[in-house]
Design a protein that fits this description.
Layout lengths: L1 E4 L2 E4 L10 E2 L7 H10 L9 E7 L5 E7 L6 H17 L14 H10 L3 H10 L21 E7 L1 H12 L9 H21 L3 E8 L5 H4 L7 E8 L6 H17 L8 H4 L4 E5 L6 E2 L2 E2 L16 E6 L8 E7 L5 H20 L13 H9 L12 H11 L4 E5 L2 E4 H4 L1
Parallel strand pairs: 3-4, 7-9, 9-12
Antiparallel strand pairs: 1-2, 4-5, 6-13, 7-8, 10-11, 12-13, 14-15
């Protein structure tokens, strides 16, 4: 839990029995809407920083809802907790009593890291951040989005695109140490090319998420290892996907080599407004039973991020899923659709011929994209004229969002309307 002491947030470890799993005897009415409301409900971080509910669906099917606050755990922690729960279920015991498989303590790791801070990495980032660099203006929109509401779009690459992606990772120019790293570098190249095309910037930074688990013990430790670091991209006038990929690969190597725990900073975060988060984990089964995992959408993002791209394959199918989270103060629905189409145009162009010049690719919405770069950003829409109109607009935008909750239950916006 998080308590404030002298105006400074402090972490405290809960006693073993605190925050037990809530088990419902029956499934809620409209389970999807119920889960949406549960996810939208703020966590009482002075009491606990997670929420967990188990309820039956039909027959032998059960749903486990696990909500973690991002200040205590990252996405890979979810997989570690899931695996530990499966082992405890098989052994008929508690997670902290697993035979020879007790999860290592994140607080113990954090204490060791504070003592042994990597001074070489500290000096490296001080030098890298000495020169100021502003985030790119995407479609000439504001540099600093004013609110954190976001819309998520899932893009399945599918078997055909995935086969083409894997084929190009086997070529000399696009291969890396692992297939996952090869995919990451290609998607990083496409994302950088997209930023350059829709911002008209040739020198900018984007954020990459590092998951920081270097040793075998750390790979078994749940906690907040993930950090964000700026990676600079610079495109020449005749830049091709191949040359950009090579340049970014060198930059990624430098960032990862110096991405020591605790060395990310607010100064580094201020340089980018687009983030790529490649998550390699998967959830294949629970104690021998098949599972289907869905990453719940909390509809929020960091106010300083215009776009966050998560790449996952939680089912272990081999086909990546791209989750685009658009900050709604930068991207209206039409611009979200346009950005998705343009990203896929650039991805397909790279897969067709990686020696194509980045600027030579005709985008799906070339005319409107060009117009967006030459006209001023549109003013924000006027506020609705009255309270009822304002509420109706919110119902239409997010009908399943929590509207009111009390001892008698909870109502979504649509139900209250």
């Amino acid at each position: 839990m998080i308590l404030e002491e002298g105006g400074v947030p402090q972490q405290h470890v809960l006693d073993g029995g605190a925050g037990a799993l809530e088990v419902l005897d029956t499934a809620p009415n409209s389970p999807a809407a119920w889960i949406d409301r549960r996810v939208a409900r703020p966590l009482p971080i002075a009491e606990r920083t997670f929420d967990a509910v188990l309820f039956p669906q039909s027959g032998t099917l059960w749903t486990l809802v696990l909500i973690q606050h991002h200040v205590i755990a990252d996405a890979l922690s979810g997989q570690l907790i899931f695996d530990a729960l499966a082992k405890a279920y098989e052994q008929g015991t508690q997670v902290d009593e697993l035979d020879g498989n007790r999860l290592p303590s994140f607080s113990d790791w954090a204490k060791r890291e504070r003592i042994g801070r990597d001074l070489t990495a500290v000096r490296y980032w001080a030098e890298q951040l000495a020169e100021p660099l502003q985030p790119p203006r995407l479609y000439t929109r504001p540099l600093h989005p004013p609110h954190p509401a976001c819309s998520r779009h899932l893009v399945q690459l599918g078997p055909e695109r995935t086969a083409r992606l894997d084929a190009i990772t086997e070529t000399v120019s696009f291969s890396a140490l692992t297939s996952q790293q090869s995919r990451f570098q290609i998607l990083l190249t496409v994302l950088s090319a997209w930023i350059a095309r829709v911002s008209a910037e040739r020198h900018f930074a984007l954020g990459i998420a590092t998951h920081g688990r270097r040793t075998l013990e750390e790979k078994r430790t749940p906690g907040l290892f993930m950090e964000l670091f700026p990676l600079e991209a610079q495109l020449d006038p005749d830049e091709t996907f191949t040359s950009l990929h090579s340049r970014l690969s060198d930059g990624t190597f430098d960032v990862l080599r110096h991405a020591a725990p605790g060395t990310s900073s607010a100064e580094g975060h201020s340089r980018f407004n687009v983030v790529l988060n490649y998550i390699p984990g998967s959830f294949r089964e629970f104690a021998g039973s098949p599972v289907r995992v869905e990453w719940l959408d909390h509809r929020h993002c960091d106010p300083n991020h215009a776009l966050w791209l998560d790449v996952t394959d939680f089912s272990g199918s081999g086909e990546p899923v791209l989750a685009f989270r658009f900050n709604e103060s930068v991207f209206d629905p039409d611009l979200q659709a346009q950005a998705l189409a343009e990203f896929l145009c650039l991805l397909d162009a790279l897969l067709d011929n990686p020696d194509t010049a980045v600027d030579a690719v005709p985008l799906a919405a070339e005319s409107s994209a060009s117009a967006a770069l030459t006209r001023p950003a549109e003013p924000a829409p006027a506020a609705p004229p009255d309270v009822l109109a304002a509420f109706s607009a919110r119902v239409e935008a997010a009908p399943n969002a929590l509207a009111i909750e009390g001892d008698g239950g909870a109502l979504s916006r649509a139900e209250l309307a």
